[in-house]
Structure formats: structure tokens, C-alpha cells
Amino acid sequence: MEKWLKTLAVVATLVMLGVMIGGSLVTKTESGLGCGNDWPLCNGKWVPEYTLESLIEYMHRFVTGIAGIVVGVFSVMAWRHYRGNREVRNLAIFGVFFIVLESILGASAVIWPQSSGVLALHFGFSLLAFTGVFLLSLFVLQRDKREKWVQMPVSKGFRNYIWGVTAYAYGVVYLGAYVRHTGSSMGCSDWPLCQGRLIPDLVGQTGIHFAHRAAAAVLFLLVLGAMIYAVRHFKEKRHDLYVASILAFVLTALQILSGGLVVLFQLHLYATLFHSLVITCLFGVISYMCVQSLKQPHTSTVRH
């Protein structure tokens, strides 16, 4: 059972990652209405006529449906296997809830036209669904390493800090999705400057784009602070937070650079998808730090 559960954990995470990338592909190629205003049908058919837009949109729906089934099975199996474990129960409910919610929001966006702000929520809810599955998968995969990695509690100050950083990171992600849905991705046509200036006129699409850049720069500093603290205090007795903090910093730097590539390559498809991939992984890692900051060492470990 343990072996199958670990395999399913990896599959569920990869499928959810496919949902995230597929959603970004739909947005980038403007294929959201590739099936018209029909859902779950595509232009009134179960098997749509072949056009690039309809194929992309329909495949995204298909992958999301498969993801829902896989995540549902994985969540139920994990809940039953770790019966009575509140962390497993909460993560299972969290992941299933948000994958259902993002599916409903995606369907409503097709049937009824939505504002850019509401459309940006779709990516945000998808990210939360991925994060729930990702964290549950890490619990299953790392269950036997907890006693070795968690040998000291985390201070209340750091715990509050990393939770605050995570909430802020979610805001940065939402703002990035808002940039795309308002067509502001080229609001700054150069990088690292914006319209040839350090601080441009903050109006229209330029203002929206620059706000996202500024928010990402602040996130970089916040994650840097978390890494410095973790390197100083967690290297020996909190291997989980030590490694995660370094990975989060690397991903934050990569996220900023990938955002620059999106501009420099003028919204090239691969650059855009890579940017979405990095921010998805980054938010998952920071969320992992949140969950791990709540964990206490076993009594036997403390005595040792």
C-alpha cells in the first residue's frame, strides 16, 4: 500500500503540474473560447472540429478531468492509510476543494464572460489546488524522514514570517495573472528597465506591469531574508527548512529572470510557460516551509 501510495503521489503531482501549464497555454494562445461558450461540450460536440484553439482548450479540459479523478483517488487513499492524521485530512480536503472550485470557475468563464480580475482568480485557485496535492505528496514521500529532519521547533517569529511571505507570494502570483489577462505583459517593453526608465509613468498597462515587477522584487528580498535565517539556524537540526529555503531563493531568482525573458523574447510561448512553471514550483516550496514550520520534533528526538 505504501509503495502504491508513493507512486500515486508522484503521478498526482505531475498531472496537476500539467493542469497548471495547460492553463497557461490556454491563456497565452487565447484559446479560452476555443470551444465557444459551450461546456462540457465543445462547440456543441463531444469531439470538436480540429482547430488549434479548440484542441488546446479541449485538451486542457480533458487533463483537468483526469487530474480530478487522480487527485480524488490519491486523497481518499492517503486519508484511509493515515487514518486519524489531521495534516493528511486537511491537505486532502484542501486539494480536492480547490480543484473543484477552479473547474467550476473555468466552466463559468466559458459560459459567461468574466472580467480580467475574475479570470486571474482561475490561475490562483489552480495554484492552490496544485499546492494542496504537492504538500500531501511530500507528506507521503517524506513520512519516514520526519524524525531525522525535524529535530527542533521553529520560533514563533519565523513561523509568522514565512506564513506572511507565503500570503504575499500569492498576491504576487495573482498580480502576475492579472497582468496577462489585462494584456499588460508588454506594458514594459524592456528589462530590467521599464520603458527605458527605472520608474516609468505608472499609468495603464505600464503601471500594471511595473507593479508586478516591484512586487516580485520585494518577494525576492523577503525570500532572501528567510534563507539567511534558515542557513544560520536550521542547517543542523531542521534539514527540511534549510534545504527548502535555499531552493525557494533559487526559484525566486529564476522567476524574476524568467519574467525578464518573457519581455526580452516578446512573449515567446516557451518563455511564458517556463515563467508559469517556475512560479508554480516556487509557491509550492514556500507553502511547504509553512507546513513544516508548524511541526514539532518527537519527544524521543528532543531527549536525544
Automatic annotation (TrEMBL):
Its EC number is 1.17.99.9. It is found in: Cell membrane; Membrane. Its cofactor is heme b. Heme binds at residues 212, 275. GO terms for cellular component: plasma membrane. It catalyses: Fe(II)-heme o + 2 A + H2O = Fe(II)-heme a + 2 AH2. One of its GO terms (biological process) is heme A biosynthetic process. The chain crosses the membrane at residues 7-26, 58-79, 91-112, 118-141, 161-179, 210-229, 241-267, 273-291. Keywords: Cell membrane, Disulfide bond, Heme biosynthesis, Iron, Membrane, Metal-binding, Oxidoreductase, Transmembrane, Transmembrane helix. Its main location: membrane. It is a multi-pass membrane protein. Pathway: Porphyrin-containing compound metabolism; heme A biosynthesis; heme A from heme O: step 1/1. Signal peptide: none annotated. It holds the Pfam family COX15-CtaA. One of its GO terms (molecular function) is metal ion binding. Belongs to the COX15/CtaA family. Type 1 subfamily. Interacts with CtaB. HAMAP family: HemeA_synth_type1. Catalyzes the conversion of heme O to heme A by two successive hydroxylations of the methyl group at C8. The first hydroxylation forms heme I, the second hydroxylation results in an unstable dihydroxymethyl group, which spontaneously dehydrates, resulting in the formyl group of heme A. This is Heme A synthase.
